[in-house]
Amino acid sequence: MRKRLNEEPSPIVSLKVDHQTQIDGKSFKKGENIESNLKKELSPGAEVRASFDLEKMQNKAISIEKHTK
């Protein structure tokens, strides 16, 4: 199930990121540290567009794209 969140102000949604999640169209490599890569790719408070599915009561990120104005 995919849902679009269009609310003002933008909602904050926690997402589980794993090696299948794509950031700006790029996948993580096996053995790559997800947390350090996310810190490198996204600055704190960055606005992003994300698609996610609900999996085992968690929001699992499918893809994350940096939001450009």
Q: Roughly what fraction of the amino acids lie in strands?
A: 25-35%
The gyration radius over C-alpha positions equals 12 Å
Total number of strands = 4
User: Which structural class do you get from the secondary structure elements?
Assistant: mainly beta
Biggest sheet details: 4 strands, mixed
H/E series, N to C?
Answer: EEHEE
Helical proportion, percent range: 10-25%
**Overall tally of structural domains:** 1
What is the count of helical runs? 1
Choose one word for the global shape.
globular
Extract low-pLDDT stretches. none
Average pLDDT works out at 84
Q: Within the largest sheet, what's the order of strands? A: 2-1-4-3
Q: End-to-end span in angstroms? A: 27 Å
Helices and strands, with pairings:
Elements: E1 22-23, E2 26-27, H1 34-41, E3 48-55, E4 58-66
Parallel strand pairs: 1-4
Antiparallel strand pairs: 1-2, 3-4
Q: Can you give a write-up of this model?
A:
It is a single chain. The protein is built from one helix and four strands, in the order ββαββ. With 69 residues, the protein is mainly beta. It has one domain (1-63). It has a four-stranded mixed sheet with strand order 2-1-4-3, with no helix packed on it. The longest helix has 8 residues, at 34-41.
